[in-house]
Amino acid sequence: MAPSLEYYEDISSGELPIKAIPTKINGVEAISGLQLDQTDKHDIVLKTFRAFIADLCQQFGGGHPGGAMGMAAIGIALYKYVMKYSPTNAGYFNRDRFVLSNGHTCLFQYLFMHLVGFKSMTMEQLKSYHSDRTDSLAPGHPEIENEGVEVTTGPLGQGVANAVGLAMATKHLGATYNRPGHTVVDNMTWCMIGDACLQEGVGLEAVSLAGHWKLNNLAILYDNNNITCDGSADVACTEDINTKMQACGWNVIDVYDGDHNVTGIVQALLTARISQKPTFINIRTIIGIGSSATNNAKAHGAAFGVQDVAQIKKNFGLDPEKHFEISDDVYSFFDDVKHRGEKLEAAWNTTVEDYEVQYPALAKEFKLRVQGKMPEDWTKFIPSKDQLPSKPTASRKSAGIVCNSLAENASNFLIGTADLTPSVNLAYKQQQDFQSPDFVAACGMTGDYTGRYIHYGIREHAMCAISNGLVAFNKGTFLPVTSTFFMFYIYAAPAVRMGALQGLQQIHIATHDSIGTGEDGPTHQPIALPALYRAMPNLLYIRPCDSEEVAGAFITAIEATSTPSIISLSRQNLTQYPQYSSREGVQRGAYVFIEDSAADVTLIGIGSEMGFTVQTRELLQKEYNINARVVSFPCQRLFEQQSREYKESVLRYKSGKPIVVIEAYAINGWERYADAGISMKSFGKSLPGAVAYKHFGFEPSVMAPKIKGFVDHVKLEGVESLRGDFRDLNGSMSYGLEH
Amino acid sequence: MAPSLEYYEDISSGELPIKAIPTKINGVEAISGLQLDQTDKHDIVLKTFRAFIADLCQQFGGGHPGGAMGMAAIGIALYKYVMKYSPTNAGYFNRDRFVLSNGHTCLFQYLFMHLVGFKSMTMEQLKSYHSDRTDSLAPGHPEIENEGVEVTTGPLGQGVANAVGLAMATKHLGATYNRPGHTVVDNMTWCMIGDACLQEGVGLEAVSLAGHWKLNNLAILYDNNNITCDGSADVACTEDINTKMQACGWNVIDVYDGDHNVTGIVQALLTARISQKPTFINIRTIIGIGSSATNNAKAHGAAFGVQDVAQIKKNFGLDPEKHFEISDDVYSFFDDVKHRGEKLEAAWNTTVEDYEVQYPALAKEFKLRVQGKMPEDWTKFIPSKDQLPSKPTASRKSAGIVCNSLAENASNFLIGTADLTPSVNLAYKQQQDFQSPDFVAACGMTGDYTGRYIHYGIREHAMCAISNGLVAFNKGTFLPVTSTFFMFYIYAAPAVRMGALQGLQQIHIATHDSIGTGEDGPTHQPIALPALYRAMPNLLYIRPCDSEEVAGAFITAIEATSTPSIISLSRQNLTQYPQYSSREGVQRGAYVFIEDSAADVTLIGIGSEMGFTVQTRELLQKEYNINARVVSFPCQRLFEQQSREYKESVLRYKSGKPIVVIEAYAINGWERYADAGISMKSFGKSLPGAVAYKHFGFEPSVMAPKIKGFVDHVKLEGVESLRGDFRDLNGSMSYGLEH
């Protein structure tokens, strides 16, 4: 679906007030051809808006006024003229998505939402910015939980990648469900950025992908005030950003007088709407305009002070004695927006109704997607235990077996990889790549926008940040899967975190975990990373020990509709334990793997190290006459959610027998459950996987005598003696027994 | 010091074999003007090299052959002709630095090191690649511990930023210490990359900075084989990389036949040497050249198989029956390299000797820098306790007080910030920015290459990866300080980790920690991140509670010469405890803050939450007649290094009294030391800092009764009952008392 004049006419059928088509794309100068005959009105809105922001920050002596003030004219262009949305129903499915990637300028969004009539953004709420109200809808950065906010932003650069995900969502849904004369999805994504978002690597990664995918339904609006916290942005960035964006496959439009030229900005936005490529609109603005900190870094993140706020109003010809003043004229200027939004939504509803008549089967699926539901029969695509391999299998392979079937059959699954297709085993039958048809035609490759297999390139961070955008498009419409080596989810950590913070369900497939990954060496062997993801709120880090547990991990991840999951998998083959392992057990976080009522010790086994744990149990029995039970512990957070009784039944603290955990990661956090551990005390080493394990002491013949010594010690000293004396049974930092 | 022909002549005085000056810079086509009359010899070296790599990977059936084979001609150009280095003394100070950012092609480096005669890289060592030898000097990725390796690489993109740091180091030292006719530092940095390193955000951030700083002593050699794991690199990247690099301020040189055109590559490298900007050399190569996987992703990360290895040799006219064959001709081709290196080093030594005579004071300082030593009197720049503020002070301010004096006086301190100068308080008196003199002249700003204050822009990841490069230039020559909000060290985590892995001392100043940062909200409030850094091997995460502890944190960080430190600091004012706090205590990780021999409970207080802890202690006494002692616990890793006796003296487990930790982070890891905790169970919230603390229960009047209940419970049930029953005294996931 190439954009065209018709396309534009079509999207403007909801009576957007502007129908003029700009004549130049990619021009260096502002494009002319349209005059909005409302300059006077714009002027008073701009002044009112800016004075109000100054008041808001002055109220509690803090906040970010300068950027928002500078961006006022951009807001008029978007909220009054060009953006397709409905204040009455912020969630209307085919709305344009707006991302404020420079989230610290949130007052820009809040105040425009108030002016156009979003119900929740009352005057009282507006004024709760930086207050001590715990029910504020005006937090310091936009938060997805609140009406009219598409994604939570703040950590810079994330929003750019989120916007790419949102635009992909539209492209994919449009290509999949639109039919001639029945355009059910065709919204734009508008992404506002400041000077930082394209300094951040994640923004640059995403920009490269958007250009590659020719996401012409995406526009970045660059609030180019050229001021950052350290002063002129030039102090650290003097690149030619326009040329850089063009080199990445973007159209570029300059607007030089973006502090007031609403018409120019409107034209640029309309041009973006009919572009063949994503569009970068470089809008020069003036930070803190009207204040004494005009064009100064001081306008960025602090209130102006009482005097200066008064002076701002005087400069604007407003009454310095009045605060939070919005005249009826200003409100009435935006009067038409609500009605227009309702008409846009009604028009879309009609379109969908017609569509249901013409394409009932497709419409049924489409409505399920709109409702954000999994296909009802998804559970049948999860292999049963007896369909899973019984021979030693790498859990990354098991994950492929489980996920491929889901991917083939569930249209909401979007499988992605950071260039590790041959390693992560997620390519599935009849897989189609997500690609621009233009690209495919030019390169002789396959794929189009209906494709559900995404090559993110070697861009782990953008992959996960884009994935957040895909989910945020409409919760449940997509269940994206990302994939790379577990170690490289450290690159993606800021985005994984934002997914958890926002409750954006997705599945991160993290292969090659622990030191078992082998020869690639310490750079590729995660040691500390699990501590981050186990501590992260609203994230499930699941480390299954065999194929059955992998199935359990997927079921858990799919059922966690407001929580992202990381499924942590081995490179190497793992012994399968169909006699012990349980998908239901995974869902409870930990469970009894091998029971022994006469146990002297409980061993906690996890993921790729379960084999060693079971073997150690056998050796303890055979060589030392020590009975051990084994607990499988794939997910700490799920276990924490269990009842106290269940926990006791699994770990049997009351038995007074010690508990030893075996995992080739840093121990941090296991002290909650275990009395002693065999873990990693240093970074790893480049050795074949099995040799690496041996090198670091993960060998049953080495572990068994250590555990025996520990069990003997506990028998002698009593289990009470273990308090405050967690035993590291290997490594140089251990103390106690070995000393 | 602008580069010039003289400059080039000067650096080539060590008898590099090439003196021709190329005539074109930034040309689109390969530059002509030089013919190396050794094409036949190159041909046999290329074939031998490629067959040998195939043998190496075949030996143990794994590894990364394809890229290294493709890059062979680049290696000849570098190692035989252009690079200034000495195989006899890999550490010679003024050597060119070589970074293999595409570290998986390590065999490229290992084999050339062998051919030119690096002592450690024997045939036996070469063949230990992917073996089970724990003393291998040929690990799966280059490791800094080994001779001839400047930085450990593997996680893609890092090397690009490391190389920027290495080039900055040269620029800074040159500008600071070189005098007319006495050039003591002027080496180049050559950075080899593959298709991934400029897809990764960290690479792109670093590239932008290198262009801004006009680091003309830096060249990127792009091994453009256009193949990644997923196939053609085009599948995810179709940008115009040359234009992009030019837009970032780089010269661009194309080499189209880089698989064999040694002369063309040499010319490009020489052109880079005299460029006014950093140079990007786009060299087209052929992955897996000669194999059946030529130009195929299969050549990337797997052995070719016995048959194909034989076929490769046949294709090259070599004997398929012979393995690991290197003829005398091939060795002798590199014969001159060693001798040349020795002469280069000798010439440098003479230069330094003359310099010592002419500039004795400067030379004394320079030699200290070469030896990697702090100024001897550094301790006198650390304020004593009575010089520190006694009124409530934000610990970020305390850090400024301690660090500014060091920065003013210690020439090895390089202070950097990711655009948070007004927030992190690290700007010091007479601070000079690190900037290109050209830029300064053009913009009317201040600074030059002697500057020791670095504006990294909003590029946290590149900041820390560049910092790694600065340290790696020569351990101890620089002690870089980076700074941003603690939360944004999650962006930098991959680089912070590489610093820890490589033992690269530096200080990361992480301000605005915990929920006390306030209104910016959950996006800016770290909860899980401390768990990562506390678990990370060879990293000190230090969270001081007042100015005295901040001084202790700096002393600790400065004395940890092979370990990076993160000093975690508050945005808000903190009560100062000169009567309790101790810099020596910080160095032991934890210490008794307030002793009470009759204590019913030990409270662990940390960093910004110490004030609440002390107040809670007072309230427990006053309201509930419960005696509490307080332990300050700024650093878990340092505490782990203490003796068992010391630990017991601090935490007094044997007293049988319970221990409660109070910290506004995820609890994970504290279970090792405490029996119960008041911590964060969710992400934070946008509220004024003090209100946020209150909202999440960090209020003495809320905490005291909870702790009282817990103490009562322990009295009743006995301390033994706490095993396996860690108490979360707040939050929805707690169990036990509250149920």
Automatic annotation (TrEMBL), chains A, B:
Pfam families reported for this sequence: Transket_pyr, Transketolase_C_1, Transketolase_N
A Gene Ontology cellular-component term: cytosol
Protein residues bound to thiamine diphosphate: 104, 154-156, 225, 300, 488
Subunit architecture: Homodimer.
EC number: 2.2.1.1
InterPro entries, sorted: THDP-binding, Transketo_C/PFOR_II, Transketolase-like_C_2, Transketolase-like_Pyr-bd, Transketolase_bac-like, Transketolase_BS, Transketolase_CS, Transketolase_fam
Cofactors (names): Mg(2+); Co(2+); thiamine diphosphate
Name used for this protein in its record: transketolase
Organism: Exophiala bonariae
Comment on bound cofactor: Binds 1 Mg(2+) ion per subunit. Can also utilize other divalent metal cations, such as Ca(2+), Mn(2+) and Co(2+).
Binding site for Mg(2+): 195, 225, 227
GO biological process, one term: pentose-phosphate shunt
Keywords (A to Z) from UniProt: Magnesium, Metal-binding, Thiamine pyrophosphate, Transferase
